[in-house]
Amino acid sequence: MKEKVENLKLEVAKKLETTASLKEVNEIKVEYLGKKGPVNELTSHMKELSVEEKKEFGKILNELKNELTSKIDAKIKYYEEEELNKKLSSEKIDVTLPATKIPAGAPNILEKIVEEVESVFMSMGYDVVDGPEVEEDKYNFELLNIPKGHPARDAQDTFYIEDESILLRSQTSPVQVRTMLATGGKEPVRMICPGKTYRRDADDATHSHQFMQIEGLLIDKDIKLSDLKGTFEVMAKKLFGEDCVARLRPSYYQFTEPSVEMDISCFACKGKGCSLCKNTGWITVSGAGMVHPNVLRNGGYDPEVWSGFAFGFGAERLAMLKYGINDIRTFYQADLRESANFDRKDV
Amino acid sequence: MISLNWVKDYVDIENEDLKELAVKVTKAGVNVEKVINSHIDNLVIGEVLECTDHPDSDHLHICQVSIGTSTTQIVCGAPNVKKGIKVLVALPGCILPGDFEIKAGKIRGQESNGMICALFELGLEAKTDETYAKGIEVLETDLEPGTDANIYLGTDDTLYELDIHKHRNNDCYYHIGFAYEIASILGKKVNLPEANYKEIDDNVNNHITIKVETDKCPYYTAKMVTGVEIKESPDFIKKRLISAGMRPINNVVDISNYVMLEYGQPLHFFDKNKLGDNILVRQAKESETIITLDGQKRELLTSDIVITDGKKPVCIAGVMGGENTDVDEATKDILIESAIFDAVSIRYTSSRLDLRSEASIRYGKGLSYEYTDAAIERACYLLEKYANAKVLSGIAVHDKIDKTEKIVKFKTKEVSTLLGLELTDKDVETELDRLMFNYKLDKDTFTVTIPRRRLDIDPNVNDIAEEIGRLYGYENLSSTLPSIPTRRGVYVGDVGIRKEISRRLRTLGLNEVKNYTLTSPDMASRFRYEEKNQITLPNPMSSDKSVIRTSLIPSLINNYEYNKARNIKDINIYEIAKTYDSSYNEDTKVSILMKGNYLINEWQHTIVKCDFYCLKGIVENLLDYLGFKNRYTFESCEAPEMHPGICAKILLDRKEIGIIGRVHPSYKKDEVYVAELSMTELYNAKVKPIKFKEASKYPEIVKDLAFVVENNVESEVIKSQIKKSGGRLLDSIEVFDLYENVEEGKKSIAYKLVFKDPSRTLSDEEVMEIFNKIISEVESKTGAKLRS
Q: Is residue B23 within 8 Å of B156, Cβ to Cβ?
């Protein structure tokens, strides 16, 4: 009996060695382990044995069954894997072929710079507000301390819609007054207003009858000119690099006093002098100043209690400087070949 | 243009480096745009010793010219060159305007070693027919041949070209005012020019009566001189006028200009005998005329101020004098006018008449009456000295000017706080001294009287802080941040939704563009699907930018054409911008244009074309994102410039909010699709907050069915009937197939219906019951037939 078992083992092992396909292995499985196979036949002889013998022989038969099963299954697995590998290798693709073009939209270049500026100022607690482009003379000029007859509002600068009353705003500053009046002169203000503005300029590489300003206004208590310088420097560093330094120069605007122009050290030559900064080492990027007491009063704020600063950037100028653009018309031409580069986060 | 030689008369700058000084002036707030050294090298005085005709020319002359140590031959074409005159000689190496370098050479075979110059050739006069006809400049001078001609011309000077901000236009536009600025910067004193003269025993008021009948002339003063001798001006006056860009004429005219350049106050000289005994200043009468000094007849309006002799205009106030009372060679007695007119009125008149004179420019900026007085005195002094005039005593005056002093009180601490500097009272005193402002310091309070010449300074602490700050130097300012509570900035109003829409559309693969608000009448007439009146500018710069757009689509069409012309095939763009109608209603629009392909992988032949349904998908995606799921519908419609069969209104909560469709093929041949939504409507529509909805744990039952309908029946009609009949348990309906012309003129639409109950498993029987109800109701109510 034992001999029979050992022979079966050898026989199966030998057969498995010479199989050529999964089919043959499956046939062997049926042949030896199937209902009519030798293993089953041996099992059927069990009832003829004594209890002792049954015990011993049962153990041997079990071992035989397990061994044959595991050997045959291993061979089956071998063939299955071989088949899968064959299939996988036939599925190999050329990973260097072009991808499906997932549509990606770019922002307008001006919007890109506006978003950068917004994020800097929002992190410093400034709200982003908006105002009308068709504006009343009162907000665009009068309440900003630019009375009727002042040279700053000569008709050739502004697009009037109705004589002396309705116009296309020539600056975003009216939003200052609107914001102040909206708070009723009781609350501190921190806001920026990016928006379209219009002036009667013939369009060329450096002039545009439509352009974007980014207005800023802060009103609180004990606000100093040096706070303006520091705030400006935060923005300049974010936009033009950490080694950027700010400089203020005296200037004049009707609605601020003192008024300043704000320069940044030239980021291209680091202040040594180059064509970008016209060899001065400095680039003017903003007009600003302390809010004029008359404007505070017009906005409902008591200048004895409140003070603040206001500033304005030209979005086109910032973008031209930052991205190296030479023609202001670029922003309004919508050349998709140019804007495509702006569909990414900046450094 | 400021002459530094001239400024030297009033403030000591003898030892200053004028280039460095320009930097200091700029730093303190008045921009010196350019420092010009007016010296012309290799330009000398020459004397024509001999002058003969050129043998090979009918107009050229051959001149032997003494240039001091030697004599040189120069060929000259001017008709007025002759033996014995002194002339300006540009020697080889001399560079004339336009980078024209003089070289020795031959002219028609004759040696020529330089050029005899006219003033216009040196850039000292404009080139006009008149100056050209005058020929070369003949010099009246004792200077020896060979002398540097710049000394004669006054071009041995340094000039500052200023870019003055409007407010400092008053005081930095004339030499004495600018001298004050320099003195403040250098901490020096200003010496005003001499103005002492003798008066004869006759009073001006015996000869003239002044009456002013307009409030646009608050100050009018006049003095009179007799026995003037009209001749050439002394050299120093001529030189300075030339360097200021003015042409010397005669001593009397030159003196009025000279004083104007000193004090900024324009003067007008009337020939007293032509004028008569009366001056009446009033508003002009409608259609009144005057012939001005330039010989032009001018028609006046009631908004113009005129000086009259009681009857007729003799001068357009502040702009230009009349021919009828002008000073000429025969003039003996002069009435000098020094006055102040309303700046706005002068600016208006001079721009209306297109007559910008030196006087009108200055009146237009505003004047200080202090210098109205000083200028008339100074003119009397100069006329006495250089025109042998006798000055009558007294002054004729009309005086309604506000002489209130501008006084400001403040404490040092206020200035320190405003600027962010730590200043002491001593610092403030130092700066006020430099500014030459009169002040008192009482305990800790300063009382400052602002000098009248500084029209730009208002009596408040901010203005004082600016003056102190700019002299003290903003470079001494540190960088600080406001010590205020931190907070997070937010988007106010509809800014937030604008940003969200913009980001979403970008994520969906559309490129943002920005266009001009002002469009041409043709563009503005396109895509007028809304009944809106448009704003046309009454006074546009050009017709192509004259109408404020009410739709952005025409601009996007422009963008499409621009890119198409550059061979870009797939154009997927959007714009968000404000529009305005003629009642000034603001409506922010979101507009999209798609053309070409949306999604491509060419070698795999995967292509999603931009068509109506692609754009509709974009719009729905946006509306769903904004929280409007199931609240919008599309209804076919017709609209201008849109394909009549491919166009729909977009409705939100049954309200029209926009349009979508294909651009009419007869307008644009390409398949171009556009959509426009009112962002203002989207902003105003309320949205509910997000709530969690648990997915059903029970199985759903899916049933398909198809209906055959007339080709022109819209899917939405059937869908909404299915929805109505399906009731609560019908969870969703999707179109999954479409056969056009399944029968003659009919189409078949196949729908996938999903039935679901969140709380239990549905039985086949109850679903079948609903399903059959749907079929019979759709058939009876829409005329559709179930496709078998």
A: no
pLDDT at residue A331 tops 60: yes
Q: Which residues are CB-contacts of A47 (< 8 A; sequence separation ≥ 6)? A: none
Which pLDDT value is given to residue A156? 55
In whole numbers, what is the pLDDT of chain A averaged over residues? 92
From A226's Cα to the closest Cα of chain B, the distance in A is 5
Chain B partners of A127 at a C-beta cutoff of 8 Å? 489-492
pLDDT classification of A274: cutoffs 50, 70, 90: confident
CA contacts within 13 A on the Cβ side of B224: 27
Going by C-alpha positions, the residue among B502, B506, B417 that lies closest to residue B465 is B417
Pairing state between β B209-212 and B278-283: parallel
Chain B residues near residue A94 by CB distance under 8 angstroms: none
Give per-residue pLDDT as tens, B625-672.
Answer: 999 999 999 999 999 999 999 999 999 999 999 999 999 999 999 999
Host H or E run for residue B620: helix B612-625
Q: Which chain B residues are within 8 Å of A188, Cβ to Cβ? A: 484
CB A217 within 8 A of CB A179: yes
Q: Nearest CA of chain B to the CA of A175: how many Å?
A: 12
Q: Hey, are the CB atoms on B469 and A343 less than 8 Å from each other? A: no
Give the separation between CA B725 and CA B629, rounded to whole angstroms: 21
Q: What is the pLDDT of residues B184-201, one digit of tens each?
A: 999 999 999 999 999 999
How many residues comprise chain B?
Answer: 788
Nearest residue in chain B measured CA to CA from A118: B489
CB contact under 8 A, A105 and B505: yes
Interface confidence, given as ipTM, is 0.88
Q: What is the 3-state secondary structure (H, E, C) of B663-688?
A: ECCCCCCCCEEEEEEEHHHHHHCCCC
CB contact under 8 A, A224 and B460: no
- Output the six-digit token pair for B639: 């609209």
Residue among B60, B391, B55 nearest B195 (CA): B391
Q: How confident is the model at residue A154 (pLDDT cuts 50, 70, 90)?
A: low
Q: Which of A95, A108, A210 to mutate to test the interface with B (most CBs of B within 10 A)?
A: A108
**Closest Cα to residue B453, out of B603, B217, B629, B264?**
B264
Contact B404, B269 (CB under 8 A): no
Is residue B169 very low, low, confident or very high in pLDDT (cuts 50, 70, 90)? low
B223-254 pLDDT tens trace: 999 999 999 899 889 888 988 888 889 999 99
Strand partners of residue A114 = none
Whether residue A151 has pLDDT greater than 80: no
- CA B461, A139, B483, A119 torsion-angle sign: negative
Q: Is the pLDDT of residue A266 over 80?
A: yes
pTM summary value:
0.82
Q: H/E/C letters for each residue in chain A?
A: CHHHHHHHHHHHHHHHHCCCCHHHHHHHHHHHHCCCCHHHHHHHHHHHCCHHHHHHHHHHHHHHHHHHHHHHHHHHHHHHHHHHHHHHHHCCCCCCCCCCECCCCCCCHHHHHHHHHHHHHHHCCCEECCCCCEEEHHHHCHHHCCCCCCHHHCCCCCCEEECCCEEECCCCCHHHHHHHHHHCCCCCEEEEEEEEEECCCCCCCCCCCEEEEEEEEEEECCCCHHHHHHHHHHHHHHHHCCCCCEEEEEEEECCEEEEEEEEEECCCCCCCCCCCCCCCCEEEEEEEEEECHHHHHHCCCCCCCCEEEEEEEEHHHHHHHHHCCCCCCHHHHCCHHHHHHHCCCCC
> pLDDT at position A347, please?
82
Q: Are the C-beta atoms of residues B210 and B393 closer than 8 Å to each other?
A: no
Which of A135, A208, A257, A307 is the best substitution to test chain B (most B C-beta atoms within 10 A)? A257
